[in-house]
Design a protein that fits this description.
arginine biosynthesis; alpha/beta; Aminopeptidase; elongated; L-glutamate N-acetyltransferase activity; 23 strands; Acyl_CoA_acyltransferase; Carbamate kinase; amino-acid biosynthesis; EC 2.3.1.1
Length: 440
């Protein structure tokens, strides 16, 4: 059992290494709600965030404080007031807000100062910095309601935050802002996180959600959304929890202005943040301007990824062996399906202009990404590419996947159906089936 667990841990680490490298020196804004700080597992969550910084990620942590503010108001005998979903903050409520936010900020700083980022390393110390990096302005009077000291982000001191990140510090921001005249305003943590991510041109904005994972109407978890898909969901699904709807609206706004990635991760899942960032499948919802998976021409930088993808299939005899050198020489023939920098699919197109025929070869998918129509997507892509290049017939040679290709319009042919140049290279020992499809 111990050996099995060790192997599982080793496999996870090997799979995580590319993501650890990818996130190094990248700026990430992480937003947590005040409810998270009331949970017993909050120190563990902060440890995970600190580990990100220890791995080289530049972390800005933005916290909310709604339940803490509510508690301070009750202690003072004050009744919370809301309008249009926003807190109305008068002078008395502002005192409670500053008290609650200040205590919570100190609590978070204290937990992060427990050497969480580098446990067990002598002399290692995690530094946390806070400050007046957010300039605010009042919301003013809206629909007859004077919001008084409730405000919105006016400007973010991005250079000031960057200097602290350059020094290796975690920057901790609270839902408070300051006017040029010294007034303090109660802000939305959502607004602070969103505007900071835009101002810093962050690589990622992560919302750790209290309402659970984002699901569609069939209760299936949504793992990826483009901006347009997120907009449709906001328009058509009236049953979305308000918190998730707010996060989606923020995701649409920031992805439209700045091409970053927004992650929605269920805060209640132990290690959910690390699983989302350091595993192929993740555990939350990723919102981006364009689809995360894209088909493109391969480059020399992809040789290693293609080799790793096809090598297991070569070992099973499904694909013909290709060395790295062979791949480098033929890289212009390959297309890859790229999932956020990971090569999860590939195919090659070899053309024979004298016969207007082309061979589709080396079609492969990563085991964890099979299904979902990705194989069809790659096949259709290279067929279209062959057609655009003036070829009117494509063929494949296969030993194991004959049925799959026949279901997609290929018919069994003969060796004599191949272009003469390809006939000369036919491997009699493999005895591959010849499958042919007319284009157009």
């Amino acid at each position: 059992m111990e050996t099995e667990q060790q192997q599982i841990g080793l496999d996870w680490f090997r799979a995580a290494v590319p993501y650890i490298v990818a996130h190094r020196d990248r700026t990430m804004v992480i937003a947590i709600a005040g409810e998270a700080a009331q949970a017993l597992e909050f120190p563990t969550l902060l440890r995970d965030i600190a580990q990100l910084q220890a791995l080289g990620t530049r972390v800005v942590l933005v916290h909310g404080a709604r339940p803490q503010i509510e508690a301070r108001l009750r202690e003072r005998g004050l009744t919370p007031r809301y309008a249009a979903g926003l807190r109305v903050t008068d002078a008395a409520a502002l005192e409670a807000v500053c008290d609650a936010v200040g205590r919570l900020r100190l609590h978070i700083e204290g937990l992060l100062s427990r050497n969480l980022g580098n446990p067990g390393i002598a002399g290692a110390r995690l530094r946390v910095a806070s400050g007046n990096f957010v300039t605010a302005r009042p919301l003013g009077v809206r629909e007859g309601v004077d919001f008084q000291f409730t405000g919105e982000v006016r400007r973010v001191d991005a250079p000031g935050i960057v200097r602290l990140l350059d020094e290796g510090q975690i920057v901790l921001l609270s839902p408070l802002g300051y006017s040029p005249t010294g007034e303090v305003f109660n802000l939305s943590g959502e607004d602070v996180a969103t505007q900071v991510a835009v101002a810093l041109k962050a690589d990622k904005l992560v919302f750790l959600t209290e309402a659970g994972p984002l699901r569609d109407r069939q209760r299936e978890m949504l793992t990826q959304l483009t901006v347009s898909a997120a907009e449709r969901l906001l328009t058509t699904d009236s049953g979305l929890p308000e918190e998730l709807a707010a996060h989606l609206r923020s995701a649409v706004d920031v992805c439209t202005v700045h091409d970053l990635r927004v992650h929605l991760v269920d805060r209640h899942i132990d290690g959910g943040l690390l699983i989302e960032l350091f595993s192929r499948q993740g555990i939350g919802t990723l919102v981006s301007r364009e689809p995360v998976e894209r088909l493109r021409a391969a480059t020399l930088d992809d040789v290693g990824g293609i080799f790793d993808l096809i090598q297991p299939l070569e070992s099973e005899g499904i694909l013909v062996r290709r060395s790295r050198e062979h791949l480098e020489l033929e890289i212009d023939c390959f297309r890859v399906l790229d999932a956020d920098g990971l090569i999860i699919g590939t195919a090659a197109l070899y053309t024979f202009p004298e016969t207007k025929a082309a061979e589709i070869a080396c079609l492969a998918l990563h085991p964890e990404y099979r299904g979902g129509g990705r194989g069809d997507q790659i096949l259709e892509h290279v067929e279209t590419l062959a057609w655009r290049r003036g070829h009117r017939q494509v063929f494949v040679l296969t030993t194991r996947t004959q049925q799959w290709f026949q279901e997609r319009g290929y018919r069994e042919g003969q060796i004599t159906d191949l272009p003469p140049a390809r006939q000369a290279l036919y491997n009699q020992a493999r005895n591959s089936k010849v499958l042919v499809k007319a284009l157009g």
